[in-house]
Specification:
29% of the residues lie in helices and 21% in strands. The protein is α/β, with parallel strands linked by helices.
């Protein structure tokens, strides 16, 4: 059973009420006539508290009745929302009002556009009445085009504003800061490699090599076998020359890209990379290493913006698991209520 309104479970302390009621039960003492009682002043009979558990079965049934009632309130899905407009706060206000008026939703209730609105709407669709209409007004960049069109049980209309194309401008060259610490016989090979990287990247990419890492250093090349780097050196990535025995490299993961086999391991200093191809000894190996590193560092492709469209009401729209409370909750509630009334009547009789 899924709790759609879990705040109802905070009402569980209500179970203390029947317990308190049973503990506070008063009983009138039984009057027994005595022959000598006529010499005593008359006194009205009084009730006294009996601190004993009485009618335990009735108490249990009443507690279960309250638990079932709270569970039913927490699980039941009551459609209460009407026509609604989900508005992107960053969209142009005049355009937003124009789209809402064109859709005939001026009098509809407005809500702020949540993250991942289509997925959010599919999850909370049970809150809307069957006759409700929904309108999403947002910038195209706020909604990604889903791979499969979602199906809704309500009529959902999507209106997106396409941003005007930006003026073409020449992108500035990206500078990647690298710290190089290598033996003299290998330092020249590393510098030649990064010079080849600059040539392959064209004007959009350039590598700046320094002897010590800086705040914006993204890669440290350490190729000094038998020597440990300074304790304060940190960088997101490290390239370690072949043949170096670092404790972190005892357990590594392996990835093969473009014919280059790279081993890597995470450490407090950053991610450590090593390969038998470090440093490359020929142009073909250097080119393969460049392609492998470019693929590993590639950024995810931007999502395609979703165009304006109308999601028609699906005849068999999929429902969320346990979208409706099980009928057994209502039946159990009714059975407990009848049992409680029966026990109460039997006790009084």
């Amino acid at each position: 059973m899924t709790s759609f309104y879990p705040w109802w479970w905070l009402a569980l302390p209500v179970l203390l009420l029947p317990i308190w009621w049973h503990r506070q039960k008063r009983r009138r003492p039984t009057s027994v006539p005595l022959a000598t009682a006529r010499f005593l002043p008359a006194a009205a009979p009084q009730q006294v508290r009996v601190w004993q558990w009485q009618d335990r079965l009735l108490l249990l049934v009443r507690c279960l009745l309250l638990v079932a009632l709270i569970g039913w309130l927490a699980a039941v899905a009551v459609p209460w929302r009407g026509d609604t407009v989900l508005v992107d706060a960053g969209a142009d206000r005049a355009w937003t009002e124009q789209q809402i008026a064109a859709a005939g939703m001026t009098a509809a209730r407005r809500m702020e556009l949540p993250p991942a609105p289509l997925a959010w709407l599919r999850e909370h669709e049970r809150d809307w009445r069957a006759s409700a209409r929904l309108l999403i007004v947002a910038r195209a960049t706020q909604l990604a085009m889903p791979a499969h069109l979602p199906q809704f049980g309500h009529r959902v209309e999507l209106r997106t504003a396409v941003a005007p194309p930006a003026a073409a401008s020449r992108p500035a060259a990206e500078v990647r800061h690298i710290s190089l610490a290598a033996a003299e016989e290998r330092g020249a090979a590393w510098r030649t490699l990064f010079a080849a990287f600059d040539h392959a990247g064209g004007a959009a990419q350039r590598h700046a090599i320094s002897d010590a890492p800086q705040a914006d250093t993204g890669l440290i090349v350490w190729d000094k076998p038998g020597q440990a780097p300074p304790a304060g050196w940190r960088a997101p990535h490290w390239w370690l020359g072949a043949g170096q025995a670092w404790p972190e490299l005892v357990r590594t993961s392996t990835v093969a890209v473009n014919g280059i086999v790279l081993r890597y391991a995470d450490s407090p200093r950053g991610r450590l990379w090593t390969s038998d191809a470090f440093p490359p000894r020929d142009a073909a190996t250097a080119r393969a290493l460049y392609e492998a590193w470019r693929l590993l560092a590639a950024a995810p492709a931007p999502a395609y913006p979703a165009p304006s469209q109308v999601f028609a009401v699906a005849a068999t729209a999929p429902t969320e698991p346990d979208a409706r409370p099980a009928n057994w909750i209502a039946l159990a509630l009714l059975a407990l209520f009848l049992l409680e009334r029966t026990l109460t009547h039997a006790r009084r009789a």
